[in-house]
Amino acid sequence: MQNQNSSNAAQPLNGDYWRGIGGDRWVLNMDVLELGIETFSAPLLQAAAPIPGERVLDIGCGGARTTISLAREIAPGGQITGIDISPQILSMARQRAGGIENLEFVLGDVTNTDLGDPYDLLFSRFGVMFFDAPERGFRRLHACLKPGGRLVFLCWRSPQENPWMSGPAAVFASFIPTMPKPDPDAPGPFSLADGEKIKGILSAAGFNDILLTKLDSVMQLGPLSEAVPFLMQQGSAAAVLAEITEQQRREIAAALGDHMRQYETASGITPPAAAWIVKATR
Ligand SMILES: C[S@@+](CC[C@H](N)C(=O)[O-])C[C@H]1O[C@@H](n2cnc3c(N)ncnc32)[C@H](O)[C@@H]1O
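Above: query sequence and S-adenosylmethionine SMILES. Below: predicted holo structure tokens.
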């Protein structure tokens, strides 16, 4: 099966991606995606330990599930800003959060947007892996924190530890050998998979007390009939899969279904998923 995509470079999943097709796909699959990563939320919120009165920034806030939870935790007296680079995603967030008084949204790239007074807590659930220049991006975040303030975020660990992403990628590559391989250093889900790399970037940016904790859970992908089309719409592979014939897509979907069935449980397809909880202070 030929890849009809003339370029062999995976699209970096940076701001252009999120403002374009990536944002459209996130909006389309928002409920499934959020349910998928929900098991990671409670440990992340616990690590962030927000307290009433704090000023909080939710970075890459997406559909604002975490922003809304944090807004409750920091009331009374606290104020949260959700920032996201994607207009279409942020418009979903605004619809969901209408009427919550201590919450506001900013449309922009967190690495170059003026966010005013510094924050007590910079928080992110999987929203800090997409910076074009991570070193510069995290220096900018450091400047947004009050002295003693906390940075707390989640990011994915390696592809091998996340078979919900690497398994489908291997299935796709077995049909389309020229499927572009994502660059681990390019903006994307695995750009911060290496713990030593995270420590290097954060310490160069000026952060202290850097602590990485492994969080192992599962991705909740629902029934197989929903998991397969969902997985075929993720990341840079989706653009290639959109270009092949319907017959080819059906063959790949069948193979992907066979592969994912190993993760079937009473609550649907639940492959292992592995993240870092990263904490640091200014
Ligand atoms: C994987 S999604 C996570 C969304 C949300 N935090 C959640 O857990 O539901 C990543 C989000 O980060 C946003 N994003 C990516 N790069 C960004 C940047 N430089 N500045 C602000 N938001 C960014 C994307 O638009 C997207 O909404």
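The two ends are 51 Å apart (CA to CA).
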